[in-house]
Design goal:
The complex is a heterotetramer, with two copies of chain A (268 residues) and two copies of chain B (334 residues). With 268 residues, chain A is α/β, with parallel strands linked by helices. Helix content of chain A is 22%, strand content 22%. Chain A contains seven helices and 15 strands. In chain A, the strands form three sheets. In chain A, strands 4-3-2-1-5-10-12-13-14-15 form a ten-stranded mixed beta sheet, sandwiched between helices. A three-stranded mixed beta sheet of chain A has the order 7-6-11, with no helix packed on it. In chain A, strand 6 and strand 7 form a beta hairpin. In chain A, helix 1 packs across helix 2, helix 2 packs across helix 7 and helix 4 packs parallel to helix 5. Chain B folds into two domains: 275 residues, Glutaconate Coenzyme A-transferase, CATH 3.40.1080; 46 residues, Defensin A-like (2-Layer Sandwich). Helix content of chain B is 35%, strand content 17%. Chain B has 13 helices and twelve strands. In chain B, the strands form two sheets. In chain B, strands 1, 2, 3, 4, 8, 9, 10, 11 and 12 form a nine-stranded mixed beta sheet that branches. In chain B, helix 3 links the parallel strand 2 and strand 3. Chain B starts with 8 loop residues before the first helix and ends with a helix. Chains in contact: A-B, A-C, B-C, B-D, C-D.
Chain lengths: 268, 334, 334, 268
């Protein structure tokens, strides 16, 4: 991901993305965070405006907040040191997420398309075709993101805004968004309602309520509609109500930096 | 049945593994508690053509794949989280040396649950509708795949969902924090799917960072999620998960995590890594020397150390363990 | 969300139960840990037409059925083990007052697992081929029953197995040994299906024999099988399972078990029992008086008492609990 | 159950039945015991000739032997006091029994028929018919016995030998034996092989290898073929090799009575 800080700003683009993501979470919600940026975004929300968020990670870690900086993983000692409950994957991803109980999940993406489908499996040159060719670049697979994408009430996708990452159609659907758009999800009976937002390093996209195509809803103080359109690999539509995302407040930045103790979001 | 099941690591690998087997690691994933030392020993004994069942990738699968010992694998997440892509596994996949069958993290756990239950299939409400269902690395020419996650009709509503194939690996080498000599085990930290795996696998070998007296298990029976009755052997090996972490015992070795993953990015780097960190030690002591005694002290100073406190009184010394192992060997030989 | 979830028993029953609801007890079964006192309170508040989901019968279902408060029930085992048949339940079934839908003990657990997973059905390799599949007390005229445990075809082998309907009770009142004020809970002894039930139920209320500080949970997170995030309320009630047992805390009250079951054999006996042992106490103290302080001392002297030792340092006194409860009530009222 | 002791014997009929049942268990086997007599029989085997039997109960209690006498139930404190592991019902009855991993289970019966089908659900007058009439007497239901009957490698049925309990056809199959006999179990794909013996207060019945009808294989020193035939509600066939069951040895009796500390099997 791009981690170049804008020298004119008192915060980095990644910090803005994390804060914008954290603002998607509401107090009291049952929420599942992945590792890395999405975990920081989640625990930022807890530290700032959602103290009673009921947070968990995929392996079944409950009641924890990271100590000593960004956890290396969702079962890392930095998140195991002050948990109140450890269970297992069936519990977290099955009983609480795939079941539909979880209100919101945050996932990352190597590639996302206009219907919010996420690819984290591999990069191919062109379409894969009818025989499953080897990927040019193997990525990380779906992990728990597929389960979150199917089951969580809503899903927030965090992704660095670059043309290659914003494809008209992802080469491999690792985690379903709205598939071909419209009511396509209904074919599979997913209990989750699908992605509610794509939060990027440049702005915020949300789905059209009917077509489910993602459109530009807001941009950051440091970005612009033009930059976003140029950074998107499909013909991105712009909402008539497009607006600037409020900049991080001092309180937000302070809360985020308490969570991001090792400054992972501030590194180049 | 021996009065205890302590076995040396090399002997456990000799007895319970073979070329071409379906081999599962039991771990907290991807960068948590995993018996990576068991994977090192698989390489030392030159096991080949392994079919890895890894709920998620760890440095163990990364190593086995990078070194060419695994030719098939099934997993949920195949990266190393904040440590990035798993370079050894990635190289093996991109070159076609290893066929990686993708599932989600819940799917792997559910498939182990189904194997443990001996169900013919497991209901799937996830993975359907994505390329995980449509694409099979094990049957690349079948598109969309009809056999990887086929449809099944719910008899109550008439609607279609998916069906996962259950997993029953030949062996599960499960990392646990504490085991007694009989094979009762306590895991500190998330189980991930070790509970289900221990019942799904045809055989179970425990690799424990520490050995405790059975009195510890009688004091905390609710913590003993793997009872002795399903365990074949107990291997004592401190820092078995290194460079990964073991809650209560040691933290992740960040620099070795990065060093190892960088090495596995190339064939030469992998060969060097195997020479220096797989074939280079002869016993527990020289393994710990290899990690470095200073590093061990540093990693042991974990924010999670207090989690081990209630159990310390029952931890056996290396000398006590050696005595028990000798007793066991004598009994086995008799 | 209140900073703690402690609620008086009567208030928990008032808030979370209603006539005609599907009500589940979470227990170690049939004669182990069960919040029988919650059932007493259901009677005190004259709840009616309950649909009981009991993995196995306990004295709670025996009482609710005998007193006419439950008109439907689903369970695995419906007796009282060595204490014999459950006379209250038996009388209700034989008279037609209660329709008892039979399953096996595994079936009930699997159905709760399916409810927790939100699966549309659960694969059934047991109960098929017996009258459990063919006979339905909820649909007595359909024989053989096609809807209780219908067939489903395994898409891998093509062979038929059965399908269980998942359970999602409206409320689970789960007995636990220890809970913190936030709703994290530790069960000592077998869980039976309390883990799955706590996720399958729409709402969960814990009834705890003792309240501990959250520090206890941070010391033993692997024992916290019910995390606070899924819990609505925590009820403190010592000897909540009486006359049944609670490992680590108290033994079964053999004479009251027999007395109670004998009373429930008749309508008059049941009325007397309700008068003397349900409607007769006004608070925890008078409940404990009813059991008898000598009996309490005797039952507390259990061979399992040592199981509680690691946790005693965190147990809160009744005064501390009262203070927390008052704080909570103030917050709720605010 | 009949618990009348034969005054001429140094042991009761129930003790003989428990010992005969215990003899069915082999060292090292994975075994599940119900409550009451079957638990005593199982722990007797462990105390006497099968020290390494891997015993469990339905709720997931492992590594225990009862203290203080006959447990009141399978989760009783008498069996919880010295266990090495407590798990749950899915584990014990699902992962270890229904899966087919368990070698042997011991179950009781209110009524058993000539194909080893067990009724523990209710007693009706005559056939139930096509509408599910109320039972005259409601019993305990199947409990875990159905799961054991379907999944355990073999099943030993313990039952008091009385005509009303030995029916040509049980009125309700709570736990399947061989159903209508022959290969009928195959229709359901049960992983368990079915009941290997019915051990009664008078003798031992085993199934014909082809028809699966239970026939009299052995009687006790205190019983007789005639008494058994008169006590069986179907036309019981007698094996050509019918013989007397060896009486309890002093060692067996001593081991049983150590387990049965409160003398449950010796009470009238």
């Amino acid at each position: 991901m791009s981690t170049v800080a804008n020298e004119n700003l008192p915060y980095t683009r990644q910090e803005m993305m994390a804060i914008a993501t954290g603002r998607e979470l509401r107090d009291g919600e049952l929420a599942i965070f992945g590792v890395g940026l999405s975990m920081l975004a989640g625990y930022f929300a807890q530290a700032h405006h959602a103290p009673n968020i009921r947070a968990m990670t995929e392996g079944g870690v409950y009641g924890a907040t990271p100590v000593g900086g960004l956890p290396w993983g969702i079962e890392c000692n930095r998140i195991s040191a002050n948990a109140t409950s450890f269970t297992n994957a069936i519990d977290a991803l099955g009983f609480l997420v795939a079941s539909g109980r979880c209100d919101v999940g945050i996932i990352g993406a190597a590639q996302v398309d206009k219907f919010g489908n996420v690819n984290t499996t591999g990069i191919w040159e062109g379409e894969i075709g009818d025989s499953y060719r080897l990927p040019k670049t193997r990525l990380t697979g779906a992990g728990g993101a597929n389960d979150i994408a199917c089951g969580a009430g809503r899903v927030v996708i965090m992704v660095t805004h670059e043309p290659k990452r914003f494809a008209d159609k992802v080469s491999y659907i690792s985690s379903p968004g709205y598939l071909e758009g419209g009511n396509a999800r209904e074919r599979y009976g997913f209990v989750g309602k699908g992605p509610s937002a794509i939060i990027t390093t440049l702005g915020i996209l949300r789905p059209d309520p009917v077509s489910k195509e993602f459109i530009l809803e807001a941009y950051y103080a440091f970005s612009s509609i033009e930059e976003i359109l140029a950074s998107t690999g499909w013909d991105l539509k712009v909402s008539p109500t497009v607006h600037v995302v409020p900049e991080p407040t001092p309180e937000e930045l302070a809360a985020l930096r308490r969570v991001d103790a090792t400054g992972a979001l501030r590194k180049a | 049945m021996p009065s205890n099941k302590l076995l040396p690591l090399a002997e456990a690998v000799r007895r319970y593994t073979w070329d071409g087997m379906q081999y599962a690691s039991g771990a907290a994933l991807p960068v948590g508690s995993d018996a990576i030392v068991f994977g090192r020993e698989l390489l030392r004994q030159q096991r080949r053509d392994l079919h890895g069942i890894f709920h998620c990738n760890t440095q163990q699968l990364n190593l086995l794949a990078g070194a060419g010992a695994a030719t098939k694998a099934e997993c949920g997440f195949s990266g190393l989280e904040v440590f990035g892509f798993a370079n050894g596994l990635r190289r093996a996949v991109e070159s076609g040396q290893l066929a990686l069958e993708d599932y989600s993290n819940l799917a792997m756990a559910a498939r182990l649950l189904g194997g443990a239950m001996n169900w013919p299939f497991v209901p799937a409400t996830v993975n359907i509708g994505s390329d995980i269902q449509d694409r099979s690395a094990f049957a690349p020419d079948e598109y969309p795949s009809k056999r990887k996650i086929p449809s099944v009709t719910d008899p109550f509503s008439g609607r279609e969902i998916g069906a996962f194939s259950p997993l029953k690996p030949d062996l599960a080498a499960i990392h646990v924090s504490l085991a007694d000599p009989l094979g009762n085990a306590i895991m500190l930290g998330t189980e991930w799917s070790r509970f289900e795996l221990s019942r799904a696998a045809k055989k179970v070998v425990l690799i424990a960072d520490a050995i405790v007296d059975t009195d510890c298990m009688r004091q905390f029976p609710n913590l003993v999620r793997i009872p002795d009755i399903i365990v074949e052997a107990v291997v004592y090996w401190p820092f078995a998960a290194w460079p990964q972490s073991s809650p209560g015992l040691y933290d992740v070795d960040e620099s070795h995590m990065k060093f190892m993953n960088k090495a596995l990015a190339t064939e030469q780097g992998t060969a060097d890594y195997v020479r220096d960190f797989v074939d280079s030690y002869s016993d527990i002591d020289s393994y710990l020397d290899l990690i470095g005694r200073d590093t061990i002290a540093k990693l042991s100073d974990s924010a999670t150390s207090f989690l081990l406190d209630p159990f310390r009184q029952w931890i056996k010394t290396p000398a006590e363990i050696a005595a028990l192992s000798a007793e066991n060997s004598a009994e086995v030989a008799a």
